[in-house]
């Protein structure tokens, strides 16, 4: 994970999403361990040990289709292969590997968990790739060196921040500020979320960003009504 409380570059931190039995915050989310650094440190320490012992790279959150969806969008819009790409909360780094395999040569993954970055580095080394940059970085407390990206990608990180027990609303605001700082003007932000609807994400990223495109995601039907369990949006920095 990469933020003051985030969910990996993979994904589904929001399986506990909305109000249940516990006391929800002002935004309707029930605080969860999934929003804490301690949780993700433990997850990636476990996954790193598993990879070292068995070679298992771990979970691809939101599944392979979520990665392919984003890469198809980048190809459709002819994003240059040397465009700078930042994976926010890269987790096991599997999405970075896919980007590199498709020819993207200027990709960076950040995560606030050192074990996640160590795991990513091991997987990238196993794949024989050398053009991927990795950094231990808290997205809510950025170093001055991180800026100027053409593309920023989030698959679950913003979801997990939303579950942080310690002032999640302020952390979400800081996330938007950090995003504005690292992304170039006219740059694109691709977010996949299982906690937030399209309309809610439009509200969260209303300052400094505009909706560029909604990406198709699987639909479900229940009780005669249909909807999407995942939202995938592309914003452009104004």
From TrEMBL:
Residues 1-33 are annotated as: Disordered. It comes from the Eukaryota. It catalyses: L-lysyl-[protein] + 3 S-adenosyl-L-methionine = N(6),N(6),N(6)-trimethyl-L-lysyl-[protein] + 3 S-adenosyl-L-homocysteine + 3 H(+). Transmembrane segments: none annotated. GO terms for biological process: methylation. Its EC number is 2.1.1.-. Keywords: Cytoplasm, Methyltransferase, Nucleus, S-adenosyl-L-methionine, Transferase. Residues 83-213 form the Methyltransferase domain. GO terms for cellular component: cytoplasm; nucleus. Residues 1-14 have a biased composition (Gly residues). PANTHER family: EEF1A LYSINE METHYLTRANSFERASE 2, PROTEIN-LYSINE N-METHYLTRANSFERASE METTL10. Protein-lysine methyltransferase that selectively catalyzes the trimethylation of EEF1A at 'Lys-318'. Belongs to the class I-like SAM-binding methyltransferase superfamily. EFM4 family. This is EEF1A lysine methyltransferase 2.
């Amino acid at each position: 994970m990469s933020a003051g409380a985030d969910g990996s570059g993979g994904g589904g931190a929001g399986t506990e999403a909305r109000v249940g039995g516990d006391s929800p915050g002002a935004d309707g989310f029930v605080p969860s361990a999934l929003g804490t650094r301690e949780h993700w440190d433990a997850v990636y320490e476990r996954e790193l040990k598993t990879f070292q012992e068995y070679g298992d790279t771990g979970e691809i959150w939101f599944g392979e289709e979520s990665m392919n969806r984003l890469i198809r969008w980048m190809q459709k819009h002819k994003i240059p292969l040397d465009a700078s790409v930042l994976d926010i909360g890269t987790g096991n780094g599997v999405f970075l590997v896919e980007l590199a395999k498709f020819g993207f040569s200027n990709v960076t993954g950040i995560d606030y968990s050192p074990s996640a970055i160590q795991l990513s580095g091991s997987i990238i080394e196993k794949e024989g790739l050398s053009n991927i940059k990795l950094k231990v970085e808290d997205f809510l407390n950025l170093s001055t060196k991180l800026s100027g990206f053409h593309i920023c990608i989030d698959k679950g990180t913003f979801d997990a921040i939303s579950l942080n027990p310690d002032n999640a609303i302020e952390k979400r605001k800081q996330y938007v500020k950090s995003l504005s700082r690292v992304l170039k003007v006219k740059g694109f932000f691709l977010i996949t979320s299982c906690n937030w609807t399209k309309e809610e994400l439009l509200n969260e990223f209303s300052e400094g960003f505009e909706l560029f495109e909604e990406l198709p995601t699987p639909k479900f039907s229940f009780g005669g009504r249909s909807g999407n369990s995942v939202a995938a949006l592309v914003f452009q920095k104004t």
